[in-house]
Amino acid sequence: MKLDVAHILDWMEKANDKIQQNKTYLTSLDQAIGDGDHGINMARGFQEVIGKISASDYSNVSDLLKDISMTLLSKVGGASGPLYGTAFLKMSMALKDSDSVDYPQFVHAMEEALQGIKQRGKAEKGEKTLVDVWETLLEQLKEQDDFDSVRFEETAKLAMESTKELEAKKGRAAYLRERSIGHLDPGSVSSYYIFSSLSDVVKESV
Amino acid sequence: MKLDVAHILDWMEKANDKIQQNKTYLTSLDQAIGDGDHGINMARGFQEVIGKISASDYSNVSDLLKDISMTLLSKVGGASGPLYGTAFLKMSMALKDSDSVDYPQFVHAMEEALQGIKQRGKAEKGEKTLVDVWETLLEQLKEQDDFDSVRFEETAKLAMESTKELEAKKGRAAYLRERSIGHLDPGSVSSYYIFSSLSDVVKESV
Amino acid sequence: MKKIINDPNSAVQDMLDGFVAAYPNDVKRLPGTTVIARKDAPVTNKVGIVSGGGSGHEPAHAGYVGEGMLDAAVAGEVFTSPTPDQVFEGIKAVDNGAGVLLVIKNYTGDIMNFEMAAELAEAEGINVKQVVVNDDVAVEDSSFTTGRRGIAGTVFVHKIAGAKAAQGASLEEVQAVAEKTIQNVSSIGMALTPCIVPAAGTPSFELKENEMEIGIGIHGEPGIERKEITTADEIAVELTEKVIADLGLKSGEEVAVMVNGLGGTPEMELFIVNKKVNQLLSDKGITIYDTFVGEYMTSLEMAGCSVTLLRLDQELKTLLDAESKAPAFRR
Amino acid sequence: MKKIINDPNSAVQDMLDGFVAAYPNDVKRLPGTTVIARKDAPVTNKVGIVSGGGSGHEPAHAGYVGEGMLDAAVAGEVFTSPTPDQVFEGIKAVDNGAGVLLVIKNYTGDIMNFEMAAELAEAEGINVKQVVVNDDVAVEDSSFTTGRRGIAGTVFVHKIAGAKAAQGASLEEVQAVAEKTIQNVSSIGMALTPCIVPAAGTPSFELKENEMEIGIGIHGEPGIERKEITTADEIAVELTEKVIADLGLKSGEEVAVMVNGLGGTPEMELFIVNKKVNQLLSDKGITIYDTFVGEYMTSLEMAGCSVTLLRLDQELKTLLDAESKAPAFRR
Ligand SMILES: Nc1ncnc2c1ncn2[C@@H]1O[C@H](COP(=O)(O)OP(=O)(O)O)[C@@H](O)[C@H]1O
Ligand SMILES: Nc1ncnc2c1ncn2[C@@H]1O[C@H](COP(=O)(O)OP(=O)(O)O)[C@@H](O)[C@H]1O
Ligand SMILES: [Mg+2]
Ligand SMILES: [Mg+2]
Ligand SMILES: [Mg+2]
Ligand SMILES: [Mg+2]
């Protein structure tokens, strides 16, 4: 399959639904080891994304991803805003002028996005940030040559859950040191929602 | 009987004991319709009175009452400090140079004390202040020609209890208007302790 | 009760020491007293201004001691008027022959203690006058003989009387301008939570999670009316309308605004209230000459705020603008 | 949650409006943004200074906008860094060719958003430099790559960089003195209660009636260590000793002291803490040049305080003393 503009629009709708539904949950995760705003930030940002992209027409995936990126950048704030903003910006750049995205292109876009996140946040895998989900997913994606919505979702979920046992080394949770162990990383959970939404899109379109 | 220096010392000891025991109760009464410091104020003041008068020798009642007055004036604060301070000052002045106090002298001293309180506080009987206890007691004292410790205590108690149904017109409780009804006036309760202590002194010395 | 203190009984003493430690070049504590005075008191040829009251209202009253404002502030125990002997020490320390004005908030205890101090001072030949601030419009019952309480509007009286005294005015002139300020200032407060007197250890009243108290005083005493909590805008309108009505303010008049936090309210909320106060006054054509948002007259850790308006004329504007070096009111 | 607000989603907007309403002659809000700037921005021939961060720290950051301090403050949502586009608007509004210094508190979010804004500004030819304040000594683990947080010490950086810029110094000079301030300032905080982010509606952590949290940040996040509550003196000693050790302060050195309230603590308690801080420093022969007690960098209605020390030399003293017209830091 190929991801086109409609797929990405659908992806964002689904991601927004999940985030709105889990706004309080995400916030409570951030209260435990951060400052209690992650759900609020993500809900505000994705609501704005939906507002923005549903009011425009897109002829290619790159322009759509760029608008998503810019909206996240200017509406989420905090640490997650620049990170998700950068991720979608890098995807947009990697898919310049593509009106749809095949599997290798998608993997390439994910690779660029991850590089962007890591550069912006200076985090590595294993530091209990959303990098853990993105990098684990990318590793899994590279092992295959086409979309596998089930494995994709499972991998994201496992990666998200694996953050529970980690000690945070980046972001606010890092100030808690060993007290951060035993709690899920909020950004990894929101990343999981984003990717499980994408998995649903893929599943439904096969 | 006559009240002498030893009686007054005993009176203050007993009054202080009652006030210390009921410090929290007096404060809680003041929390309900005032600012929650009456027990604290009275306990601080009477403790200081005991400290002061037990460190000195007194040859007459007037000097002793003057020291009590000055200590209350400079240690109680709030509304009750100047009122009790004035009351004991007026008693001291009324009993100038007396080394002991007979019944008519005592009634006269109480009369002067009440006038002092009313002048200082500009309150009349029925306004839910300690004037209610002092004036009712004076009326009862005037009906007799010698100490009657039982009636004295009973009268003070009834007067104190009668403040419950009144609406405050003076002092902080007045700001609550009809919401002040149903609560005892803290100053009337502390006055009751002072007079029931005096009643005990009289009872024990007969 | 959770407080950063050593001992409820030493809280006021420790605070006064900590205050002088913070501003050692500006103020002094009169030894053995609870009086904070200007370091250079008594100031030659200047009317002295003394205020004070119970503690727990910080930065009132010591924070207003300084050039252009108070000469001395007398602190009582928490929410308890200071005693006459302490006030008397304050008066003596600031008098240099030009006389002393006492700025008293209208509470029975304050009035009685300050009046007794004034009697003591007069007996020593000091010329003492007094003004009684009664800006709280919460209780408007005319049958109400105790009169209104003094709350945050007192700070404006300190400022204006202090500026007048700094100009070298006579005691009568300073008293007159303080009276004029009192005639033209009104306030009302509200609270979301009670506060805890350290020595008591328990709150003076309870409020449910959805309740607020309107017409609250500054001593942890209950207010005039308890009702369901509403929006900042509605609260601002209710408070401001009461104050406007009391002052009889009309379009074209000029005011100073004070949105005062009671101690536990985030400054964010005070600015949210100020937005609406400002809008309401503008809508009515009342000109805002100056605005003061912050904690000026508090009630320990109580969450809540008060709104004060001061009607201004040219004289009051000039005096309000005059320099002040008081730590809590720098101009 | 009891708050005087209209709507959690409009709290920051309402606050900014209320802030400008309070100081209309001194500041302006850039239309359509969350930026508060000096009314006269951009100031000719002066390096612009921009700071900001999440809201909920009032009077930080808008309260420090004014002659002698910041040129603009950029507000995010409560405890959430402002976004790059907003910071970029702030930078553009204050640059007049002399360049702009960004004063950033060391949080991943702040760093990333401000850095992206700097990239945008540089792309438009604006000369931007930045300093990162990391005064919080709570986390001292050297393996700790994220680095220390920025807390109340930031206010001193604002003051000193602002004074330097007001003297007409170059961007490099202003950056250098800001760096020097950062090298010489340390802080640590403690809390008795958590706070509630309006949009969350629940406290971020719970503390028992006998517990306090040491090493607390200013975003309602838990601290470094939870323990039984103790006396003001012991708290003051614990905090101050940590800061002294971190700065390596020695007898004969001079410092400025800040005892900062986190929002819900009565000023009385701050002065009680200051008494002990002052004593401890004096006992160690460390000279206190100036003291600041009050609410400078808060965390909504959190009860607690922080202690900040700034080591001073002649240059820093002069800059600290320089005039400031910022509403929350008048000198
Ligand atoms: N340096 C970083 N690199 C990658 N991800 C990070 C970094 N710092 C924080 N994050 C992610 O951001 C999430 C927190 O986002 P959010 O709560 O919205 O912002 P903030 O921490 O500024 O309040 C964390 O759970 C973590 O996944
Ligand atoms: N004007 C007054 N005249 C007589 N008694 C008064 C007056 N005002 C207050 N009181 C008495 O003082 C008591 C309160 O004392 P206290 O709580 O110590 O002082 P404050 O009211 O200043 O906090 C009241 O219960 C009342 O009995
Ligand atoms: Mg967060
Ligand atoms: Mg009382
Ligand atoms: Mg009292
Ligand atoms: Mg945040």
From TrEMBL, chains A, B:
Q: Where is the DhaL domain?
A: 6-200
InterPro entries in UniProt: DhaK_L_YcgS, DhaL_dom, DhaL_dom_sf, Dihydroxyacetone_Kinase
Tell me, what is one Gene Ontology molecular-function annotation carried by this entry? phosphoenolpyruvate-glycerone phosphotransferase activity
Under the heading Pfam families, the entry gives:
Dak2
PROSITE patterns xrefs: DHAL (PS51480)
Q: Does the keyword NAD apply?
A: no
* Highest rank taxon of the organism: Bacteria
Look up the coiled coil feature and give its residue ranges.
none
Q: Which UniProt keywords apply?
A: Kinase, Transferase
Q: Is Ribonucleoprotein given among the entry's keywords?
A: no
E.C. numbers:
2.7.1.121
Q: Give the main EC class.
A: transferase
Q: Which PANTHER family match?
A: TRIOKINASE/FMN CYCLASE, TRIOKINASE_FMN CYCLASE
NCBIfam families noted in UniProt = dha_L_ycgS
Instruction: From the Swiss-Prot or TrEMBL record, give the protein name.
Output: Dihydroxyacetone kinase subunit DhaL
TrEMBL record, chains C, D:
Q: Name one Pfam family in it.
A: Dak1
Task: Write down the superkingdom of origin.
Answer: Bacteria
Q: Residues in domain DhaK?
A: 7-329
Matching SUPFAM superfamilies, A to Z? DAK1/DegV-like
Q: Which InterPro entries match?
A: DhaK_1, DhaK_dom, Dihydroxyacetone_Kinase
Q: Does the keyword field hold Transferase?
A: yes
What Gene3D superfamilies is this protein classified in?
Dihydroxyacetone kinase, domain 1, Dihydroxyacetone kinase, domain 2
Give the UniProt keywords, A-Z: Kinase, Transferase
What EC numbers are recorded for this enzyme?
2.7.1.121
**What molecular functions are annotated in GO for this chain?**
phosphoenolpyruvate-glycerone phosphotransferase activity
UniProt-listed NCBIfam families: dhaK1
Protein name in UniProt:
Dihydroxyacetone kinase subunit DhaK
Q: Which organism is it from?
A: Oceanobacillus luteolus
Gene name of the record: dhaK
